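User: Continuing from earlier, I have the next pair ready.

Assistant: Great, send them over.

User: Here they are, in order.

Assistant: Folding the first of the pair now:
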Amino acid sequence: MPSEDLTAAIRYGFSPTPLYRPADLYSLGCVLIEAVTGRRPFTGMSWQLINQRFKEPPALLRTLRPDAPVELERLVSRLLAKNSAQRPDSADEVCDLLEEINDRYFGDTSPSPAAGPTSRPRSGSTRTKPPVVWSSPCV
C-alpha cells in the first residue's frame, strides 16, 4: 500500500490490513447460530462471555433447533471451533457448503431473484443470488 493510501486509511479510520479471516469465519458462525435458533451461542455478562468464548463449547445447533440439518450443525460447529485451524479455509468454502445444504434440504423453495438482492458470481461459479440457509420464524 503506498504511503499516501496508508495515511488516508489511518486518517479515516480504515484498517490498512485485510480482515482476519479466522475471526470473520467465527463471527459468521455466531450469526448463523443466532439466525437459525434465535439465540446467541454464549450468554451472560462481558466477563462471562469472554470466559465462555475461550473455555466452553457452544451448545450444538440441533440441541437448540432439532429440525436443523445435521450438515448445518457440523458447519456451525466448525465455524465456532476454538482452534482457528479447525475452521473452514475460506468464506468461499462456507458459501459452497451452505449452498449444498440449501439444495439438499430446501431445493426450489428459495425465494425468487425478485424477492431479494442478487450478488455477483465468484469466478467459476454460476451462482446468481446468495444461498438461503434457513427460514427461521420470527419469535
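And the other member of the pair:
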Amino acid sequence: MKKIGERKGNQETFLKNIEKFIRHILHEAPKQLEVDKVTQSINSIKTSSQIGVCPACKKAVIDKGKFYGCEGFTNGCRFSLPKTYLSKAISASNIKKLLDTRKSNLIKGFKSQKKGTTFEAILILNADNELKMEFPRKKK
C-alpha cells in the first residue's frame, strides 16, 4: 500500500501478493494445527466443567452459567439444577454431592417465600429427579 502511494508499485501486484499470502496460509495452517491437541483441549475443558452425572440419562451435568444442566439436552433430557434456590446460593460441592448421593449436606440460609424467614434443609432428588427438601428433626 505504501509503495502504491509513493507510485513505486501498483494495485495489481499488491493484490497478487495478498492472494499468494492467503494461499500460503491456507496451505500451511492445517499442518500447524494438530487435531489431536485441539480435541484434547476441548475434552479437558468439558471434563473440568463437569460437576457430576445426570441421574436421568447418565450424561455429564455441566455449569451452564446460571444453572447446572445436562449435556443430553439436545437429545431431549431436561434435567437441570439451579445455582440459587429460595434466595440461597447452592455451592458446587453440594450440587456434586446431590448428584452423587441424591442428597446434599444440611444447608442453612434458605428464605421462606411466604414469611421471609430463614431456615435450613437438605436438598434431595426424588424418584422423578425433582429437587425437593428434607427438614432435619428439631431437638427437644
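Worth noting for the second one:
The helical segments are 2-5, 11-32, 35-49, 92-101. The chain has a mean pLDDT of 87.
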